[in-house]
Amino acid sequence: MLTLEPYEPKGIKPFVFHGSTSNIGRLKEHPNAVLKYYKEAWWDLSKPMNDARRSLYRSRFQVEETILRHLGDHPRVVNTTANPYGIWLVEAPNGDLQQYLEEHGNTIDDSQRCKWCIQAAEAVSYIHSKGVLHCDLRPANCLLDKNLDLVLCDFGGSRFGKLSGKGLPDSGFFNPNDKGPPSEAMDVFGLGSLLYVIMTGRLPHESLIQSMANYDIVVNQLFGKRQFPQVEHIKHGQTILGCWEGKFGMAADVVQSLKQEQGLLGHQ
To answer: Any signal peptide, and if so, which residues (predicted)?
Structure first.
């Protein structure tokens, strides 16, 4: 298969993140932002490159740029501006949620975790109100700003009307019984798993396996049988289970449930 030489923008500083198709790095002249750029220069038509791969890169770049422009400025969505060869993102100095949970899990109190739960649900509720499906909810796609507030990112695989990045959630964040196209219900199911990871620091059913190499098979089998992790002892466990069992019609209902469990709403 023909591919391009790895692409790296001039002046890029140490990497912040390595992804499957893109990297995130810093540039000296933009100290408060990072550049998300693709590993290969798909726009350079003079270079040999597999057509399918070029098409994937182009599509995901255009999908993410269009969706972020459509979503606009919102405290729960990463702020951005376009760049010819990538996308400028306002830097989140505390990194992504997955990394933060792994590095600081023992020091994170319940109040912080509960705040993140509400913020994650608010993010999904907002993008759904704008007609956007994320399609890949997981802790690595949530960033933490300087105040440890959560912002949702990575819309390259998302859907907006006829625009599709053709993304699907990872195992553990996906209902294997859902055979239809991406939907709000799919995102709400994934939101339940995201809330579970926030509150426990573990993937759903992670404690049942000895090797992560087997995780996809095990969790898909259990979720396919509607066998979900025990959540009775977990704060927000009933909301998490409700997401998995399809009891919430929309993400806004999840926000309300979380706030009610935290006593932020009056008794109804």
So the answer is: none
